[in-house]
Each structure stands twice: as C-alpha cells, then as structure tokens.
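Quick question: what would this complex look like in 3D?
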Amino acid sequence: MRHRWFWVAGIASAFGALALLPVAAAGAQGGGQPVCADCHEEAVRSIAPTKHGAKLDATTDLCRSCHGDVAAHLEDPTAAKPAHLFDRGMTAAEKSAVCLSCHEGNRQLAFWDSGKHKKNDVACADCHSIHGKRGDPSTQPYLTTQRKLQYDTCGQCHKTIRAQLNKTSHHPIIEGKVACADCHNPHGALSPAMVKNESVNQLCTNCHADKRGPVVWAHLPVEENCLSCHNSHGSNVPKLLTVKVPQLCQDCHGSGHGQLAYGSSFGIGGANQDRATRFDARSCVNCHQMIHGSNAPASRGQFLLR
Ligand code: HEC
Ligand code: HEC
Ligand code: HEC
Ligand code: HEC
Ligand code: HEC
Ligand code: HEC
Ligand code: HEC
Ligand code: HEC
Ligand code: HEC
Ligand code: HEC
C-alpha cells in the first residue's frame, strides 16, 4: 500500500485505513489549497477500491487524468468546472479518447475503431461506470466486476435482445452462467455481429465441444452454421430452435419423406397419411436422433439414426 494521492488527507477521516498512508503531496498538508475530496467525497470514495484507485499512484493526478485541467475549478469551483465532465458537452469520440489515452494498447480494444459501438457513438463510459451508478451505492463501480449483471447494462440499449432472454428456451444469461461478452467482444471485432470467434461454429463449439466433429456421417447444415437451426439468445421453441420440428426439417427436406417412412417402413398406409403428417413436436428426431452427425455404421449413421 503505497498510495500517495494529493487528496488522501481529505478522505482520511472517512477511511480510517487510508489515514495511515503517507501523504507526499505538499498541497494537501499545507491547508491552503483545497482538494477534490473536500467537496466530492462520494466521487473519491467510489473510486478508491477500484483498479483506477489502486494502480494510479502519486505520480498521477488521479482525478485530473480523466477530468483534465482542473486549475480554474480549484481556483473557484462555482465559476469554472474541470475540462472534461463526460456530459453532453463532449462527443462520444472525445469521451472515449480520454480513456484510450491510457487503454489504447489493450488487446481487447484492438478493433475498437472498426467496431459497431464506436461507429454508433457509444462511448466507454456508456458501459463502464467509473464512480458507480448514480444514486445506488450498492452497485459496483465497474461493469467488469459484475459479470452477472452485464446483460442488464447491454439490455438498456439492446431491448430486443433483452426480451429474447425471457423466452422459454434461452441461454442461461439472466441466470448468470453465460455472459454477453462470452460470445461478443463489445469493444469490436472483425467478425459479423462482433462475435469473438472467426465463425459462429467455432464460437458455439467452444462450449458445446461434443458438437464439434469431425464425425463419419456429418449433417451438412450442422457443419455449415449452427444458426441454420438455432437462435443464439432465446426462442419459444425448445432447444433454442428457430422453428418447430418437423417444419424445421421440412424447410430443407420437403414434406414427402415423413409420410414415406411411416407409410412404407412402419406400416401406416395411404389412408392414414393425414395422421402421418401430424407429427408431435420431436417427430423427426425421435428416429433421427443423431441430428448433429453420427459415427454409427453406415446403415444407421448415414441416416442420422440412433
Ligand atoms: C471547494 C469545493 C470544491 C473543490 C475543492 C472541487 N470541487 Fe468540483 N465542484 C464543486 C462545485 C460546487 C461544483 C458544481 C456542482 C454543481 O454545479 O452541481 C463542482 C463540479 C465538479 C464537476 C462537475 C460535476 C457535474 O455534475 O457537472 C466535476 C467533474 C468536478 N467538480 C471535479 C472536481 C475535481 C476533479 C476536483 C479536484 C481537482 C474538484 N472538483 C475540486 C466544488 C469543488
Ligand atoms: C477513469 C476516469 C475517471 C477518473 C480517474 C475520475 N473520474 Fe470522475 N467521472 C468520470 C466519468 C466518466 C464521469 C461521468 C459520470 C459517469 O459516467 O460515472 C465522472 C463524473 C464525475 C463527477 C460528476 C458526477 C458525480 O458522480 O457526481 C464528479 C464530481 C467527479 N467525476 C469527480 C471525480 C473526482 C473527485 C475524481 C478523483 C478522485 C475523479 N472524478 C476521477 C471519470 C473519471
Ligand atoms: C491515467 C490512465 C488511465 C485513464 C485515463 C483511464 N484508465 Fe482505466 N485503467 C488504468 C489502469 C492503470 C488500470 C488498471 C490496469 C490493470 O490492472 O491491468 C485501469 C483499469 C481499467 C478497467 C479494468 C477494471 C477492472 O476491474 O478490471 C476498465 C474497465 C477501465 N480501466 C476503463 C476505463 C475507462 C472507461 C476510462 C475512461 C472514462 C479509463 N479507464 C481511463 C488507467 C487509466
Ligand atoms: C458496449 C459496452 C462496452 C463499451 C462501449 C466499452 N467496454 Fe470495456 N468492457 C466491456 C465488457 C462487457 C468488459 C468485460 C469483458 C469480458 O468479461 O471479457 C469490458 C472490459 C474492459 C477492460 C478490461 C479488459 C481486460 O483486459 O481485462 C478494459 C480496460 C476496458 N473494457 C476498457 C474500455 C475502454 C477504454 C473503452 C472505450 C474505448 C471501453 N472499454 C468500451 C464493455 C464495454
Ligand atoms: C451464446 C453466445 C451468445 C450470447 C451469450 C450472446 N450473443 Fe448476441 N449473438 C450471438 C451470435 C452468434 C450472433 C449472430 C447472429 C446472426 O448472425 O444472426 C449474435 C447477434 C447479436 C446482435 C446483432 C444481431 C441481432 O439479433 O440484433 C446483437 C445486438 C447481440 N447479439 C447482442 C447481445 C447481447 C446484448 C447479449 C447479452 C444479453 C448477447 N448478444 C449474448 C451470440 C451470442
Ligand atoms: C449506450 C447504448 C449501448 C449499450 C450500453 C450497448 N450497446 Fe451494443 N450497440 C449499440 C448500438 C447503437 C449499436 C449499433 C446499432 C445496432 O446494430 O443495433 C450496437 C451494436 C452492437 C452489436 C453489433 C450488432 C450488429 O448487427 O453487428 C453487438 C453484438 C452489440 N452491440 C453487443 C453489445 C453488448 C454485448 C453490450 C454490453 C456489454 C452492448 N452492446 C451495450 C448500443 C449499445
Ligand atoms: C460460453 C459458453 C457457451 C457458448 C459460447 C454457447 N453456449 Fe449454448 N449453452 C451454454 C450453456 C451453459 C447452456 C445451458 C446448458 C444447460 O442448462 O445444461 C447452453 C445451452 C444451449 C442449448 C440448449 C438450450 C435449451 O433450451 O435446452 C442450445 C441449443 C445451445 N446452447 C446452442 C448454442 C449455439 C447454437 C451456440 C453458438 C451460437 C452456443 N450454444 C454457444 C453455453 C454456451
Ligand atoms: C439441422 C438443424 C440443426 C443444426 C444445424 C444444429 N442443430 Fe443443434 N439441435 C437440433 C435439434 C433438432 C435439436 C433438438 C434435439 C432433440 O430434441 O432431441 C438440437 C439440440 C441441440 C442442443 C441441446 C441438446 C444437446 O444435444 O445437447 C445443443 C447444445 C445444440 N443443438 C447445439 C448445436 C450446435 C453447437 C450446432 C452447430 C455446431 C448445432 N446445434 C447445429 C438441430 C440442429
Ligand atoms: C438448412 C437445411 C437443412 C435443415 C434445416 C435440415 N437438413 Fe437434413 N440435410 C440437409 C442437407 C443439405 C443434407 C445432405 C444430404 C442432402 O443433400 O439431402 C441433409 C441430410 C440429412 C439426412 C441424411 C440423408 C441422406 O440421404 O444421407 C437426414 C436423415 C436428415 N438430413 C434429416 C434432417 C432432420 C430430421 C432435420 C430436422 C431436425 C433436418 N435434416 C434439417 C439440410 C438440412
Ligand atoms: C419412424 C422413424 C422415422 C421418422 C419419424 C422419420 N424418419 Fe426419416 N428416415 C427413417 C429411416 C429408417 C430412414 C432410412 C431410409 C428409409 O428407410 O426410408 C430415413 C431416411 C430419411 C432421409 C434420407 C432418405 C430420404 O427419404 O430422403 C431423410 C432426409 C429423412 N429421413 C428425413 C426425415 C424428416 C424430415 C422427418 C420428419 C418430417 C423424418 N425423416 C421422420 C426413419 C424416420
């Protein structure tokens, strides 16, 4: 613990532990020069336990590193404000530039410039809460430390996606097991929809390794794109399917075989064709259980049967 911010003396009373820290900056001891904490106790308190509080030492004027020139404000706080207020007076690009002055080299930010957020005037502080949410002392200062609530931050703008999370079948995002950033890089990526991997299938099989293949008898659309049959966020059809079986299958295979399979091989004759087409929700996959591909011998494997 070697923090020596010039405002430490000011918050010493509020934080017993910090009172023990050495105070190097002369201004704080002199008594003449006012410090940020004299008047902005909450802003100081909220930032102290964060990485910004911990990593920026005495050589950095913590508050000034983001809020810019504060000289006039310290001179007369009511007459002049610091240069950077992160309010409507700054464009999104100007706001982000402040953060990027330190964070530009971060690997996760490599594609910030080509990402959809930058291009649509979303700024760093629209997602990252530096001082905690206003009026709610229970919120952590950083979005990054509250993985479980990440969807809530994203959902404030992405309302259609937010709504999908409540559908009967959904990735366990609200449940806190999967986060938006497990699949997307919110800072930008070259892939469509800023997904983390080059292809959707690579992304999905990161977690669903049993669907990765290769298999002896592959089902072509599975190799091509999981999203031929599944939604990524939520669906009212079980198993995140885009459409119910058998319609899902019939979109590609036509409606002929089901009848044929029942009619010829399984004893339901022409008179009952009507019945044969009234499949229950899983119909086709009752028999074609190895829908993602099979390693069984040809007679069963090639037809994706169990
Ligand atoms: C003597 C008291 C005092 C000191 C010291 C002081 N401020 Fe302020 N600050 C104020 C007042 C008063 C306002 C105006 C509040 C308002 O208009 O609602 C203000 C406004 C601000 C705002 C804009 C807030 C807003 O909602 O627009 C920021 C940012 C800020 N101060 C940062 C700092 C920083 C950083 C320091 C230290 C370098 C500092 N202040 C030192 C009293 C002070
Ligand atoms: C890492 C950048 C960063 C640092 C460091 C920082 N701030 Fe801020 N500050 C912001 C941003 C961004 C906002 C706009 C509101 C928000 O997004 O939380 C803000 C808002 C404020 C506000 C007005 C809103 C409020 O919460 O009342 C005050 C006052 C303030 N900061 C004071 C300070 C003081 C004092 C320090 C030094 C202890 C400081 N800030 C350090 C980025 C920073
Ligand atoms: C003066 C340099 C500086 C500025 C300006 C700055 N940061 Fe940081 N930031 C840091 C340092 C240092 C760390 C700690 C890095 C580490 O631990 O690897 C950090 C960490 C972070 C983290 C990770 C926090 C965590 O808990 O893992 C986030 C998010 C972040 N900064 C966002 C921002 C945003 C948003 C802004 C602009 C409002 C900003 N920073 C401005 C220096 C800065
Ligand atoms: C659309 C929301 C969003 C925006 C905009 C955003 N971030 Fe982030 N940021 C996140 C999320 C979510 C994470 C956590 C990522 C994870 O868990 O993989 C994160 C993580 C980080 C981290 C920690 C990375 C690490 O290496 O651990 C830093 C630093 C950071 N962001 C800085 C920034 C800066 C600087 C900007 C603006 C140029 C910015 N972020 C814009 C959502 C955002
Ligand atoms: C399991 C992985 C996964 C998770 C978790 C996930 N997404 Fe997605 N998301 C995707 C994939 C894959 C696409 C591409 C869809 C496409 O190409 O049609 C996508 C597309 C999107 C799109 C653009 C297309 C559209 O439908 O509007 C947005 C916006 C989006 N996701 C936001 C989010 C948000 C916000 C969260 C968290 C609440 C989230 N995603 C969680 C995988 C995921
Ligand atoms: C301040 C509003 C805002 C927040 C917060 C926000 N986004 Fe976005 N996001 C946008 C806008 C605006 C776009 C571009 C328009 C669009 O595609 O909807 C966008 C685009 C995207 C896209 C690309 C969509 C495509 O079609 O290529 C993804 C993916 C995405 N956001 C994910 C996220 C995730 C994940 C989070 C939370 C970590 C998040 N967003 C937080 C506003 C926001
Ligand atoms: C970060 C890990 C992760 C990624 C990436 C991921 N999933 Fe999942 N997926 C999960 C978890 C966790 C569950 C819930 C498993 C459980 O409850 O047993 C799940 C469940 C599912 C389910 C079953 C849903 C239900 O209602 O039973 C399907 C289908 C699915 N994922 C498809 C996909 C597809 C398609 C992709 C790529 C777009 C994908 N997943 C990417 C983690 C992931
Ligand atoms: C041709 C359509 C289709 C494609 C393409 C497809 N799936 Fe599926 N998937 C299904 C069907 C149908 C079910 C439901 C099976 C059942 O109810 O027995 C399912 C179920 C699942 C399940 C939940 C049950 C289980 O087996 O674990 C996961 C996870 C899953 N798929 C992941 C994926 C992944 C990952 C991909 C891409 C590699 C993918 N699917 C591609 C049709 C498809
Ligand atoms: C996106 C289109 C698409 C969807 C959806 C789809 N399939 Fe397929 N399926 C194919 C293609 C392409 C082949 C490769 C053989 C061919 O050209 O007919 C195939 C092959 C098969 C085979 C092996 C046929 C053979 O002669 O080797 C079976 C069995 C099968 N699909 C069943 C299903 C079932 C059951 C569903 C629904 C759960 C389904 N398919 C959904 C496109 C699709
Ligand atoms: C009662 C079990 C059963 C059901 C239900 C079933 N199939 Fe089949 N299917 C088979 C068998 C067995 C074969 C192997 C060839 C044969 O005997 O006709 C087959 C072959 C296939 C083939 C490849 C040969 C061809 O006729 O094109 C496709 C594609 C196929 N089924 C799709 C479907 C679809 C789509 C559904 C749902 C609408 C479905 N099956 C329902 C048992 C079934």
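Answer marked as accepted. The chain has three domains: 8-75, 92-194, 213-301.
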